[in-house]
Amino acid sequence: MASILYFLVLSLSCSFLFSLSESNYVMNPAYLLVLPTQKDASTGLHWTNLLKRTPLTQVPVLVDLNGNQVWLNCEQHYSSKTYEAPFCHSAQCFRANTNQCLSCPAASRPGCHKNTCGLMSTNPVTQQNGLGELGQDVLAIHISLGTQLGELFTVPQFLFSCAPSFLLQKGLPRNIEGVAGLGHAPISLPNQLASHFGLQRQFTTCLSRYSSSSKGAIIFGDAPNNLREFHGHAIFHDLAYTPLTITPQGEYNVRVNSIRINQYSVTPVSKISSTTVGHSGGTMISTSTPHMVLQQSLYMSFVQVFAQQLPKQAQVKAVAPFELCFHSKNISEYPSVELVMEKPNGPVWRISGEDLTVQTQPGVSCLAVVNGGMQPSAEITIGARQLEENLVVFDLAKSRVGFSTSPLSSLGVKCGDLFNFVNA
Fold first, then answer.
1. pTM, whole model, 2 decimals?
2. How many angstroms separate the CA atoms of 259 and 237, rounded?
3. Under a CB-based contact definition with an 8 Å cutoff, are residues 117 and 98 in contact?
4. Which of 328, 302, 303, 299 is nearest to 316 (CA)?
5. Helix (H/G/I), strand (E/B), else coil: 415
6. Topology of domain 239-405, per CATH?
7. What is the per-residue pLDDT across 92-103, written as a single tens digit (0 to 9) for each?
8. CA distance 349 to 406
9. How far apart, in whole angstroms, are the C-alpha atoms of residue 179 and residue 168?
């Protein structure tokens, strides 16, 4: 009898320790988690393949820097042996910050169960919302030591939203099945990975500009200290940091004090902020907006100063949605833009002319900055184009954003060079 009791106690103890180690897994801090990304040529937005379900399946999703969670369409083609729908008011629902109960009247399937949690999902391009079911399933991601990709590590019970399929109908690249939210919310992709693997709450984006020839990367963990050199280049050597704030909507914001174009000042952002009703004065960083967007008064001043730096005879008829276009052959170099961060003499985020222009027709390039109207969500939105071919570090633990003061191209490096994604 004593031996049987000892066996039961030993078994329960082992089970408890296994459960404890599973929920508090601590990865070697030198390791990073790496997610390959690609640029969609038609929209200018970036997407990735998430490895989810059982058996593991590639699921193409849009990269949304400000998204609250991963959401997927479960109404079509979602098949998995490990999908579960947490009961309403469960610990999982509490973690997802939802107390809404949901019951689906149809036959049970992923995204349709009784007495589950309801979770709102958003198409970040159209801003359309839809209510879906909180689900959990396996997610796998590549581990890396340096620039070499290693094995797949899994999160067995990754929380996400089964969103309604109508959210996929507009604004997204073709064949996209959902959104990978990288925002500040508790069940966003970076927060779940950091929690599960014991990583530092930090991720780095290096988005590729080249839609068909190379892959960029989102790197989870302390990349500046663990990916210091690439082929002899100290790729993080010139990082500058500025405070990161979170809006009530969960968006990543920084503070831009002023803008300079070839050292000529544009209207200070503080003046726009103080005279425009309903504005926070912040600058949003977004991957769901392909180009920079400026509040109308700031936009008009920006375009005027930019145009003054180029030959007037080079200007041609505008190509919508852009309002300032040029004959490319008549321009040897476009003016560079400097965003002066936080305070008058704060760190400077330099944006090259290449990062602010786009070829719209053969021989015609346009200033890829869009008029956001009088009441945009932020005075300035730094879009995906401005993030491309740059290392941008989102340090959530220290509430700061790090950015390269010079582009990777100055070192002869592209985002597509950092990792070998042949087998990813």
1. 0.90
2. 24
3. yes
4. 328
5. helix
6. Cathepsin D, subunit A; domain 1 (2.40.70)
7. 999 999 999 999
8. 9
9. 9
